[in-house]
Specification:
Length: 132
């Protein structure tokens, strides 16, 4: 098989994953898109390893070893990522990325110190803008 076929397929998979990362708002779909991008890289590693082993008479197969390493890293990443998404969904009630921009704890509206903290934060923001 020619090298162009897996390279084009890998580029299409990577572009699809990149679109998913940039366009999606659900955290689980973003993680799935990252997995798609990693699989595109794995396909490239194996395809180029086979191509280079034919031309160089090597038996090392470093591309396949890197692919196994990437699969192990991807499995750990998806496990930790899903745990974080589930914890955030339990606390916030949503997995929408745009609604999760504020990572601080929710404030109690009956808290008398809430207004004082908000005023201090806005003063600090104005000072930072003035110095910039």
């Amino acid at each position: 098989m020619h090298l162009a076929y897996p390279a084009v397929l890998s580029a299409l998979l990577f572009c699809t994953g990149l679109y998913g990362v940039l366009a999606r708002r659900n955290a689980i779909l973003v993680l799935m898109s990252v997995e798609l991008m990693l699989n595109a890289v794995n396909l490239n590693l194996v395809a180029f390893d086979v191509w280079l082993s034919r031309t160089a008479d090597e038996a090392l197969h470093s591309g396949q070893a890197l692919t196994l390493f990437t699969i192990a890293i991807a499995a750990a990443e998806i496990g930790i990522g899903l745990a974080i998404v589930l914890a955030v969904h339990r606390n916030r009630g949503t997995a929408d990325i745009d609604k999760l921009r504020d990572t601080s704890e929710r404030h109690d509206p009956d808290d008398p110190d809430h207004d004082a903290r908000t005023a201090e934060q806005s003063d600090e923001a104005q000072k930072a803008e003035a110095t910039a």
